[in-house]
Specification:
The protein contains 8 helices and 11 strands. The chain is an alpha/beta fold and about 300 residues long. It has one domain (about 5-300). The strands form 3 sheets. It has a 5-stranded parallel beta sheet with strand order 4-5-6-7-9. A 3-stranded parallel beta sheet has the order 1-2-3, with no helix packed on it. Strand 1 (about 5-10), helix 1 and strand 2 form a beta-alpha-beta unit. The protein is globular.
Length: about 300
């Protein structure tokens, strides 16, 4: 079973990915897919770290969000991936798609990201579609029929809420079934957008509330997500206070609810802030929550090893 987490190349997403690969906490069963959104040193350094550690990964050749694909001259050009057997070229089936995006060198396998059935059907009988190794698709019967045994389900299990405070209405909810143990029917792997979600905002928006999102595995193998939301949400002021309100809920809940594989290094690092007086910033909170999720996935995917 292979897991394909989908990253938009935001700074703290990339910092989480870079830290994970440097700590060797991904492994061959996790293939991160990066859709770049910014020409940044963090993107360049993350790709270099993935190469240095020979981690299986992919960078989308034709990103469809933000501005990365609009300028061919990059201030932080990405390292060459030609000839790397652990690198998987990928591209989104969109108006600017070209078969050149999926050109491979010996030993490489390519990935096609197909967001809808009409586009994929248009390529159904082409040589290109026969050559790709995996096709990432939403969970739709028409797409699964075309992709066949190369289908990789790319889903967004996160319930998106427009306002952070709204996560307090349902603090604990189902995230996904035990796909890490049993592949979704008719598929060759699975992927998701983690606790970030598929909805992309080019710039973050101020919020009256702070939430810590934590994905965990239950005794039955399913994944759930718990939302720890601040209480003093009447105004924008007091970000530090809001963080410690949310963190207190996490540190009260975790000791009795989380055991074994759920007790990751990233979770421990996040909880240690409770003993101090430092607000690490929203980016660091997000980074540690992401790292916790992927440390957990690495543990689950290697259980039988």
């Amino acid at each position: 079973m292979t897991y394909y987490p989908y990253f938009r190349g935001r700074m703290y997403d990339l910092l989480a990915l870079k830290s994970l690969v440097e700590q060797q906490q991904l492994g061959p069963k996790i293939v991160p897919i990066i859709e770049p959104v910014r020409d940044s040193k963090e993107l360049q350094q993350t790709v270099q770290a993935l190469i240095d550690h020979q981690q299986r990964f992919s960078v989308v050749a034709n990103p469809q969000v933000s501005v990365y694909g609009l300028n061919n001259t990059k201030l932080y050009p990405l390292p060459s991936t030609s000839g790397l057997p652990f690198y998987q070229p990928s591209a989104i089936l969109a108006a600017d798609f070209s078969s050149d995006f999926l050109a491979t060198t010996p030993g490489q396998k390519s990935l096609l990201i197909a967001p809808n059935a009409p586009l994929l059907k248009a390529y159904q009988r082409t040589k290109l579609l026969k050559q790709v190794s995996g096709i990432l698709i939403p969970d739709e019967a028409r797409l699964q029929q075309i992709a066949g045994d190369r289908a990789i389900l790319l889903t967004d299990p996160l319930t998106f809420r427009a306002h952070v405070a709204d996560y307090a209405e349902l603090t604990d909810e189902f995230y996904t079934a035990a796909n890490w143990a049993t592949p979704p029917f008719g598929s060759n792997g699975f992927g998701d957008y983690s606790m970030v979600g598929s909805v992309y905002f080019d710039k973050g928006m101020p919020s009256r509330a702070i939430a810590i999102h934590l994905i965990y595995v239950t005794a039955t193998g399913q994944l759930r997500i718990h939302h720890f939301v601040s209480d003093s949400n009447d105004s924008m002021r007091g970000q530090k206070q809001k963080f410690f309100e949310a963190l207190q809920k996490l540190t009260d809940w975790a000791p009795t609810q989380l055991h074994g594989l759920n007790l990751t290094p990233a979770l421990a690092e996040l909880c240690r802030y409770q003993a101090g007086d430092k607000f690490p910033g929203l980016g660091t909170i997000k980074k540690l929550s992401l790292m916790h999720h992927f440390q957990l996935m690495h543990r689950l995917l290697t259980l039988n090893d």
